[in-house]
UniProtKB/TrEMBL annotation, chain A:
PANTHER family: ANTIPORTER SUBUNIT MNHG2-RELATED (PTHR34703). Keywords: Membrane, Transmembrane, Transmembrane helix. This is Na(+) H(+) antiporter subunit G. It comes from Pseudohaliea rubra DSM 19751. Coiled coil: none annotated. The chain crosses the membrane at residues 7-27, 39-57, 64-86. It comes from the Bacteria. InterPro entries: PhaG_MnhG_YufB. GO terms for molecular function: sodium:proton antiporter activity. The keyword Membrane applies.
From TrEMBL, chain B:
This is Cation antiporter. It is a multi-pass membrane protein. PROSITE patterns: PROKAR_LIPOPROTEIN (PS51257). It is found in: Cell membrane. It comes from the Bacteria. GO terms for molecular function: monoatomic cation transmembrane transporter activity. GO terms for cellular component: plasma membrane. The keyword Transmembrane applies. Keywords: Cell membrane, Membrane, Transmembrane, Transmembrane helix. Its main location: membrane.
Length: 115, 157
């Protein structure tokens, strides 16, 4: 029974590692900051989700399980907040997306400079 | 009163995370919690209203739904990243946010960002500026399902 749990745990950890790897590949391949942030968010979501699930199976019903759950909750709150801070900072400092259909409408200063 | 509640929450989190009952550790815990309450009060977060209560049942329904969306979006973005030619079609667009409270707007904006492929860049009153990696992601948000679900978290006035 324990070995079945170990195998599931192994699969989850491996899948999580793969997701983080793909996120890294995306950060390298995609053309500009905004599109790269989409790839980075794989590393923030699917990666930790799978890795923490794999670790949770190893932890069993213990204090460690609670801690893993808390890590997941903190990540779910802080990751998008940090992503917003980064994206918003790029936008405010005038960095325009490289390849984009701009459908935001030039209603204010942020709309400037779109083709 | 709020400061006391905050202190109790911090203390509970400390106890659960440390699990050690040594006097030195507990003493450090008390000092840390007091420090955090002091910092929070300096940020004027203690006196302020924490926002409206969320409807627990809707939140219970929202989280699994969001998890499903996040997983699907992950697969979608991974497909784009790993495809040999990466046919990109990013869209920058404005989206209406119908939530009344700040808290639910934050939940909506963060849900958009948490879902790979869509990224909230700016919030201006009732509209959000969103960058999507693909047109499909933009259309999914425009359909308004996530907006509706995030709004449903608010207790009806």
């Amino acid at each position: 029974m324990a070995s079945v749990i170990d195998m599931i745990s192994f699969a989850l950890l491996a899948a999580g590692g793969f997701c983080v790897f793909v996120g890294g590949v995306g950060v390298l391949r995609l053309p500009d900051l905004y599109t790269r942030m989409h790839a980075a968010s794989i590393t923030d979501t699917a990666g930790p989700l799978l890795v923490l699930a794999g670790l949770a199976l190893q932890a069993g019903w213990s204090l460690a399980l609670f801690k893993l759950a808390v890590i997941l909750v903190f990540l779910a709150v802080t990751a998008p907040t940090a992503a917003y801070a980064l994206g918003n900072a790029a936008l405010v400092s005038g960095y325009r997306p490289a390849v984009v259909s701009d459908e935001s409408g030039a209603t204010d200063s942020e709309g400037e400079g779109h083709a | 009163m709020r400061a006391l509640g905050l202190f109790l929450v911090f203390a509970l989190v400390w106890l659960l995370l440390s699990g050690l009952m040594k006097p030195l550790v507990l003493g450090l815990g008390v000092v840390s919690c007091l420090l955090c309450v002091w910092l929070a009060s300096r940020m004027h977060r203690v006196e302020e209203d924490a926002g409206p209560a969320l409807r627990p049942l809707h939140l219970l329904a929202y989280l699994p739904w969001l998890l499903k969306e996040v997983v699907l979006a992950n697969l979608q973005v991974m497909r784009v990243v790993l495809s040999p030619r990466m046919a990109l079609d990013p869209v920058l667009f404005r989206l209406r946010a119908t939530q009344r409270s700040q808290l639910c707007k934050v939940i909506y904006g963060n849900s958009i960002t948490l879902t790979p492929g869509t990224l909230t860049l700016d919030v201006d009153g009732e509209t959000m500026l969103v960058h999507a990696l693909e047109r499909a992601g933009a259309e999914a948000l425009r359909s308004g399902e996530m907006d509706r679900r995030a709004s449903a978290l608010e207790a009806s006035a």
